[in-house]
Amino acid sequence: MDKDELVQRAKLAEQAERYDDMAAAMKQVTETGVELSNEERNLLSVAYKNVVGARRSSWRVISSIEQKTEGSERKQQMAREYREKVEKELREICYDVLVSESLASWPPGEGGWEVLGLAPVPCQCSPSPFFACSRLGLGVPDLQCFALRACDCV
């Protein structure tokens, strides 16, 4: 499928509110190696914003349930395991977008990283900065390893 068809598929997925499909199509667009237009960057941003937003909402609900669960050790364990599953999905989604070759080539200040709410921030485990999502508290030091970090807005 060529770039134009992938962009069209992403637009259709957006209209159908199928943001996972939209993100997958736009990820394929980034893998073509061609610089993204402003429209394509916006589509990528909308796709990942919605994919991540749904999981952030799930994470908040599950975390709240986990904190309120009393008594049964098994119920607490189930809530914890489910929260960890959602956290893993969040890490994988953010890792995908952070290591995208197209995103890595976006210069700061030109609507690339900033469009997605990403910025270079100091890293605790490395002298070089890493890109982090300010909304999620997720980052990828040196674009190699990643971890979920505490964030007020999660």
From TrEMBL:
It comes from the Eukaryota. Residues 3-152 form the 14-3-3 domain. Gene3D superfamilies: 14-3-3 domain. It holds the Pfam family 14-3-3. InterPro entries: 14-3-3 (IPR000308), 14-3-3_CS (IPR023409), 14-3-3_dom_sf (IPR036815), 14-3-3_domain (IPR023410). SUPFAM superfamilies: 14-3-3 protein. PANTHER family: 14-3-3 PROTEIN. Belongs to the 14-3-3 family. This is 14-3-3 domain-containing protein.
